[in-house]
Amino acid sequence: MKLIGSLTSPYVRKVRVVMAEKKLDYALILDNVWAPETTIQQSNPLGKIPCLLMEDGGAMFDSRVIVEYLDTLTPVGKLIPPHGRERAEVKSWEALADGILDAAVLVRLERTMRDQAIQSEAWVNRQMDKVNAGLKAMSQGLGESAFCVSNHLTLADISVACCLGWLAFRFPAIAWREEYPNLAKLADKLAERPSFKETLPE
């Protein structure tokens, strides 16, 4: 398999961490989707990463779709429960983490891709409200538990840690570590895993 992505995307990192935890072999193909020479639309008509290229020539996109597929390829380190409420809880954590990222990415694009004179502070504030509300919900949901769902690593924890890692990388002014020490504790614990050490954004 081949994974088209970048070294900074949190969505790509989520897929890479899952692949590492599942011990799956793949080749990483770097592509800057904002560059004129990008070829991403040959594989994903939406022009977004990550995009997984299968051995039979097929392509799969959207990180949530990709990680769900990857979890079925081997019983090693199952990350998504097969059914029921626990499965829904894991997927809800993933949706929350991705939602925070979606809002923060929009803020970054507003700040970096639009002329300052036409940037919308109301738009930025609306998105940052989502980020802050999402972080608060994450902290409340985690509480004093060692993991987001159950008593072992799941996709929920991977999603949360990738989200927090990207915020630390791109939005260092957001003081989530100080405000939510339980999230910092989870992030620090997962940062010791090889799958996270090997996929740090750069």
UniProtKB/TrEMBL annotation:
Sequence ranges assigned to domain GST C-terminal in this UniProt record: 83-202
InterPro entries: Glutathione-S-Trfase_C-like, Glutathione-S-Trfase_C_sf, Glutathione_S-Trfase, Glutathione_S-Trfase_N, GST_Omega/HSP26, Thioredoxin-like_sf
Ranges for domain GST N-terminal: 1-78
Gene3D superfamilies, sorted: 1.20.1050.10, Glutaredoxin
CDD domains the record matches: GST_C_6, GST_N_3
Protein name, per record: Glutathione S-transferase N-terminal domain-containing protein
